[in-house]
Amino acid sequence: MKKFFIKTFGCQMNVYDGQRIASMLSQRGLVETHEVSDADIIILNTCAVRAKATDKVFSALGRIRRAKKPDALFGIVGCVAREAGAHAFKRIPELNFVLGPQSYHKLPEILENPDARLLNIDLGGLEKFDELPQMSQSPTVAYIPVQEGCNHCCTYCIVPYTRGREVSRPFEDVIRDCKHAADTGAIEICFLGQNVNGYKYTDSDGKTYRLSDLIRATAPLPEIRRIRFTSSYPTEMTDDLIDMFRTEAKLLPFLNMPIQSGSPNVLTRMNRPYELNLYIDIVDKLRAARPDIQISSDFIVGFPGETDQDFAMTQEIARKIKYINSYSFKYSPRPHTAASLMPDQIPENIKAARLALLDDALNDIQRTFNESCVGRTLECLCEGPDKTGRHLVYRTPYMQQCIVASTDAAPAPIAAIKITAANKASLRGELAD
């Protein structure tokens, strides 16, 4: 029986793509293995959002070509495949296929013709969603893409090149996927998109659907207990979507809404055309709609031309909003982006120093929030055992990881957990009486 190995890098859209690839290969009779040396087909599902992510992929490729079986099929899919194109074959001659993020449904072609090299990095539309078979068993958390690509064209971002311009899936197709996920094991639905709250689909009758309509149509499914979405663009956080946090109890009180910088000057150079007052006003509206909501964000430090004053404004917005969990990175020049050509690139030592200062501040905020949860009882989703098997890993409504001692009884998928301890990274808890 042939085996496949898949390693996924990057965002939750890539997690979804990895799950669909694994399901597609399993339905063709292959068995997943976690050992490269055992695999008959090896797939790296890649991310190109930062230079470090791309470097990790090619480093892994170098290790794999030395460890794999001589006749194993070997290739990359996803954003690095789109970015590198045919050059990937020159850099790693052993590769058999290079498939962009909208072309991985063509993997069966390489299985049917293993002696051929397959290159497909075209930016299609929604073809892959039509071609992929439904998953026979859904994970507890079902990632449901509602749109791909982005029209905002931030000057640092490679997504419009690797994933293309925005395209929204038909409303009925998304709801069909949600119902199938609910019927096959999902408890939580996470709607995905590079610009998820920009979802906009108009049907043949002229009716337009937004993300709020998807949430409203999914919530009545009895099997689905939790709903969330990622990642959001601030100016797309419309009033109808904000109101869903007021009216829909299944929608988690947690939102990732990247701000990237607290400096108006840097935001302008990033081509993120919103004022800080607008962003703050959206946060205020969200907190009025759902008083227990918590916000997370993404930050880029050391963007070209960023001054000490610009960076101080980023620190100030982090303290003001009190983000409970954030992703912060040094600016990384990417090919095909305007920012990579900008003057006044910031030296690496300055970027590193600023990142360390911001991380310290963000970690303090996260630790304070985690500690404030001690003594509370939260409804948490069980993700399964940890690596030791002695504990169960739960996820709170705020997406914090909570570790609970395992018992002999089979864990309920959703459980009331009393939080007993906290640190920066995670919580400890016990089953509530």
How does this model look, in words?
The strands form six sheets. The protein has a six-stranded parallel beta sheet with strand order 2-1-3-4-5-6, with helices on both faces. The protein folds into three domains: 3-120, Rossmann fold (3-Layer(aba) Sandwich), CATH 3.40.50.12160; 131-372, tm_1862 like domain (pyruvate-formate lyase- activating enzyme, Alpha-Beta Horseshoe), CATH 3.80.30; 377-431, OB fold (Dihydrolipoamide Acetyltransferase, E2P). Helices cover 34% and strands 23% of the residues. The chain contains 14 helices and 21 strands. It is α/β, with parallel strands linked by helices and 433 residues long. α10 packs parallel to α12 (276-289) and α13 packs parallel to α14 (348-372). The protein has helices at 12-27, 51-67, 79-84, 87-91, 107-112, 127-131, 159-162, 171-183, 211-218, 239-247, 264-269, 276-289, 308-321, 348-372; strands at 3-8, 31-32, 41-46, 73-78, 97-99, 118-120, 141-145, 147-148, 167-168, 188-192, 200-202, 208-210, 226-230, 254-256, 294-301, 325-330, 377-385, 391-395, 401-405, 414-422, 427-431.
How far is the first residue's CA from the last residue's CA?
A: 47 Å
Q: For this structure, what is the CATH class of the largest domain? A: Alpha Beta
Gyration radius over CA: 22 Å
In what order do the strands lie side by side in the largest sheet? 2-1-3-4-5-6
The CATH architecture of the largest domain comes to: Alpha-Beta Horseshoe
Helix tally equals 14
β-strand percent reads 15-25%
Determine the CATH topology of the largest domain: pyruvate-formate lyase- activating enzyme
Largest sheet: 6 strands, parallel
Shape: globular
CATH superfamily of the largest domain: tm_1862 like domain
Q: Given the helix and strand composition, which structural class is it?
A: alpha/beta
Domains counted in the coordinates: how many?
Answer: 3
Are there runs of 5+ residues with pLDDT below 50, and where? none
- Quaternary state reads single chain
Helix content: 25-40%
Number of strands: 21
Mean pLDDT: 92
